[in-house]
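Input chain follows. Return structure tokens only.
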Amino acid sequence: MSNIATMSINPLFLRHDLMIELGRLEMAIEGARSEAPSNGSLDQLESRFAKINEALSRLPA
């Protein structure tokens, strides 16, 4: 278990995973907007999108 704590995460894989999640969120946001524009889940999706986008911008290029 201590080996897991010392492992480093490859930024390339993290960037890839975050970009995939952004694409999924973007599709979910578009679907939520077309179904019910005033839906509360839309706010949650947009908030998550913003957080992931910010995390992505912090990763080294």
